[in-house]
């Protein structure tokens, strides 16, 4: 019994310390994304607190951290600039309701259909995005009000502190795991800077993070259809972006921990957290792969770690803003650089020559689009590209086996699916001009999939008719026969042997 108690206590300690490490990393990210969205830094911090707390309490994937994210912030900026922050709060409420509906309808399972090359591109793309986001910390505002790259002593100090942070995070786990390496690095670098008098950028130089507990607040917008039409397009995009990033991050955690998350529960949790955000002045958000990586690698494998991270963040805001303001930005940059190294799938370089070129292309495409546009666009493009590549491959599988009969007729036994991508190849498989007078096409080993396939059969029948030949079609489904026009009279029906499957055609919809 005592051993069981100590095991639970040790796991709780890991979760709490991991949550503290994550809370440090959440501060600059939430502030930066608030600036991107064009809102007050406290709006971003409240968003991170509420997202992290509620997703872990209600519908969180154990070990996954949610907060204010850049992928959603870039969508918010247009709404805030045109209509103001109150419309953003109303939009976040609607976003959450859409996400709850998505989970309630049990659509979360469809994330399992995202192909592995798209997942690989997602992870690598986000790693690059996280890396590029840290580059802003190597800039300082000049007297002309323009951001300039650090140079001279400030640059060398920053680089040295970043390198020391990374070294601590790399070597400390080899010595002891009693304390998360990220937390140890932040404390060590902070003490060096504070007591050593090192002149370097701190969290306080980015923004003032002091504030109170988020208060209940109804969005100050007219409750009219006009308001709904303003916020609805943004809410749909935000809901989609948030769910895609959250569910893909869940899949990454599944792979890392060898467990399985519940996509529908995650969707509902994300939705509820966003809805509450809108009523308490937060900017909303979704799962964060960078902070999730910090949490999982620091030993935070349970929901307690997400709850602890959120509560520590609230403590920072309400009581410890002065202390957090002294934390060097270099320590947090070094922490995120280690996240980048851990997140990026370095093994994907070895796969380039071992997997089909099409898969490599999709992975690279998704990563590039993620960097230059946004995650939702990248994943959608990746899924579409994968589907097109699959269709192209399937189109090459259609072929016929020709058999000449003793009576002078010829049988084409067709194999493979006939659909929009294979119709051109299909038409080249036959030779109406040189075929004998009676030709049979046996479709027992094929499937007629869509309207393009029906058109291809009708066109082939027309070619044989013009050539003065008699075409006979066998083993077609009843729906195929119903949809055919020119070739309808050429079908030989066999009720016992004919297959029965559906055709994707609007005429039957």
Overview of this protein structure:
It is built from 20 helices and nine strands. Strands 5-6-7-8-9 form a five-stranded mixed sheet. It is elongated. 46% of the residues are buried.
First-to-last CA distance: 63 Å
Strand order of the largest sheet: 5-6-7-8-9
Rg is 30 Å
Helix content: 55-70%
| SSE string | HHEHHHEEHHHHHEHHHHHHHEEHEHEHE
Which sheet architecture does the biggest sheet show? 5 strands, mixed
> Treating each run of at least 4 consecutive H or I residues as one helix, how many helices?
20
Q: Tell me what portion of residues adopts beta-strand conformation.
A: 5-15%
The parts where pLDDT drops under 50 for at least 5 residues are 1-8
Q: Kindly state the mean pLDDT as a whole number?
A: 86
The secondary structure category is alpha/beta
Give the tally of β-strands: 9
Question: What best-fitting shape do the alpha-carbon axes yield?
Answer: elongated
Please outline the helices and strands.
Elements lengths: L1 H36 L3 H19 L6 E2 L2 H14 L1 H20 L11 H19 L4 E3 L5 E3 L2 H24 L5 H16 L6 H4 L18 H33 L5 H17 L6 E2 L1 H9 L5 H16 L2 H5 L3 H15 L3 H5 L5 H16 L2 H21 L3 E6 L5 E9 L4 H5 L10 E11 L2 H16 L3 E5 L3 H6 L7 E2 L17
Parallel strand pairs: 6-7, 7-8, 8-9
Antiparallel strand pairs: 1-4, 2-3, 5-6
Helix pairs in contact: 1-2, 1-3, 1-11, 1-12, 2-10, 2-12, 3-4, 3-9, 4-9, 4-10, 5-14, 5-16, 5-17, 6-7, 6-14, 7-14, 9-10, 9-11, 11-14, 16-17
